[in-house]
Design a protein that fits this description.
The complex is a heterodimer. Helix content of chain A is 33%, strand content 17%. Chain A has eleven helices and twelve strands. Chain A has a domain of 188 residues: 3-Layer(aba) Sandwich (Rossmann fold). By secondary structure, chain B is an alpha/beta fold. Chain B folds into two domains: 168 residues, 3-Layer(aba) Sandwich (Rossmann fold); 84 residues, no CATH class. In chain B, 32% of the residues lie in helices and 23% in strands. Chain B contains eleven helices and twelve strands. In chain B, helix 7 links the parallel strand 7 and strand 8. The two termini of chain B are 31 Å apart. The mean pLDDT of chain B is 92. Classes of the chains: A alpha/beta, B alpha/beta. At the A-B interface, helix 7, helix 8 and helix 10 of A face helix 6, helix 7, helix 8, helix 9 and helix 10 of B.
Chain lengths: 318, 319
Amino acid sequence: MKYFPVEKSFLDKLLTSQKSFVHAVDDVSFSMGRGDILGLVGESGSGKSTTGRLCLKLIEPTSGSIVFEGVDIAKLQGEELRRFRRNMQMVFQDPTASLSPRIRVGDAIKHALSFQGVGRPTEQSERTQAMLERVGLEPWSNFYDRFPHELSGGQRQRVVIARALVLNPKFVVADEPIAMVDVSVRAQILELMLELKKEFDLTYLFITHDLAMANYVCQSIAIMYLGKIVETGPKEEVFGKPLHPYTLALLSSIPVPDPKAELKRIMPKGEIPSPINPPSGCRFHPRCPYAQAICAEREPQLEELRPNHQAACFFPRM
Amino acid sequence: MPLLHIQSLVVEYHTVRANVKAVDRVSLSMEKGRTLGLVGESGCGKSTLGLSTVRLVPSPGRIVGGRITLDGIDVVNCSDEEIRQVRGKRVGYIFQDPMTSLNPVKKIGDHFVEIIHTHEPEVSEEEALKRGKDMIERLGILPERIDDFPHQFSGGMRQRVMIGLALILGPDLLIADEPTTSLDVIVEAQIIELLKQLKISLGLTLILITHNIGIVAETADRVAVMYAGRIAELGETYSLFEKPLHPYTQALLNSVPNITKKGQVLSWIPGAPPDLAEPPLGCLYHPRCPYAFDRCRKEEPLLLRHDDSEVACHLYDKR
């Protein structure tokens, strides 16, 4: 669970003692097995990035536990946590923003090793060189001493991937890894990530707003809405036989790259509301075309409605 | 007579390194009431082409050659006063980012009043506000919210306001440059539905500039694929998606995931688009093209008719 406190104006603070919170991630539970690729899908403001950051404890959860190989990392602090992070890395959305413009890309990758105290400097350089080549920046000598601005968007994202993987992690959170990359090279980055997954026996949490992309990459899917997981299951189930009206709305909104595709749009009303005062009951009810009185009163829980396929809805589309 | 006719348009950006041709000898013609999708990757010149039609190419860019005729008006050579009459009145323009295109210290209503007063100074403020209210109501926003500030609106509503501002003077041609790029999927679908519906009810001609192949498939009658400042292929949407001719079009279509297709294998284009300050000889796509042969490295292909489409590729030029 993660609530962000909302800062109020000075006057408000004098008048009320109550604090308000952004319910960014609210009572979210899921588990992943080794080698899984879970797609965390939702619109902006749904809490998917916050969930990803919580998995690595890049931010402190308000409550709840994050268990990685039997260890609750929510309780880890300082040196212990730092050492633990070797196992879990992140690929950020914007490769331009996540690389320092004044650090040569080879050094950026090497820093990850020296920070974790892995190997001696010569060994660190060798591992960096090998990693550069592994992500397709060959020969490494052409790239090691370059600055980020000298590379294309796709190449920069390869550097970010190399930096995440050089520590040989087990778990990688990829937050919109291809959103800033040109369309024609997106598939190439995805293919690289899938190859590396096999080679390094990785587990991916893949955060995206692009359902078609999630469908292409992931094995299972969790759909988030306003800080909650509303539906989860294997990709064939969630995208093939969606249960939650929100999933249905998302799926029917995707522009299909085929002019002959028949569009049957189920359009929810309005836009995602503020997570400061989320709607009562089911958070989707004010926009849901199938909502009834109970949806505003009680909050539906995730239930297994089909094998391995869970949804939180009183009136699922069976 | 076509509503918009562009012939051999050349737009250059003058930089210290070189004069970069962002748009190079582009010719296009648009009949009234149709929708053209202008697709390509970032830097291919699609936005510059859009801005040229209202002579708004930002400095250091300049139209250095070719003609643009809009409803009989010579856009490239007409006076500043004439081009002012084209902007807003004949051509409505929706810019990419609704978050930064509205003035944060002005109410929504003031935006409408400003545009109307610039072009029709005789209209009273009340009348202008009323027209603004009618417009936003038509776009699905409560009319009383005309007194709100942009920050009180969500992204989708701001984009609706942008559409309203583009349409308030009743233009014939609407140019939408990446109108949904910063929006979420559901809101994106809402905006696209709105544009389709407005196009029919107002009888608009629409140019949709986007990198999103899905949106083009859904809305456009015709598609122009741009690469490195040139049109690589131009054709009816159905035939272009059914049988793409240019190797670039083929590769671009194969790189887009389609959720309705099972077992799809995506492909990609090796390398990167050329540096237009030092363009390669011959076809600009040849360094990335799997079918490139000798002629492609020496001679630049022309946009020629092939079946129902036009394509600039030596594979189809049997001369």
